[in-house]
Amino acid sequence: MPCPCRGQRCDYAPTLFSTFPGLGTLDSKAMSAYLIWEARRLGVPTARLLRMAGDVRANFVTSAIPLVGWVGDMFHRPDLRNMALLRKHLGQAHPVPDPFQG
Fold first, then answer.
1. Which whole-number Å values give the CA distances from 77 to 28, 58, 96, in the listed order?
2. Which of 47, 32, 16, 17 shows the shortest CA–CA distance to 77?
């Protein structure tokens, strides 16, 4: 579904889960923890893992405040940032040759 404020595709599930106290926070943090666990398993350096955990921690702190947490879930996406960090690491550690360059 297109996001009305940014024109991008975005997921409203965390915001909907946040209407039930604690459910949205536990759900999203469990997914974030799994992403960080897999990044560690794939050999991401400790500094990058700490940055990923910092993104999740910042989101967790804002999620503790009811109204601010709902807005934070809409605009602060730690999992998207962490996936970008993981992709960056994998691109550096295991580069894929470009078949179009000669």
1. 10, 10, 27
2. 32
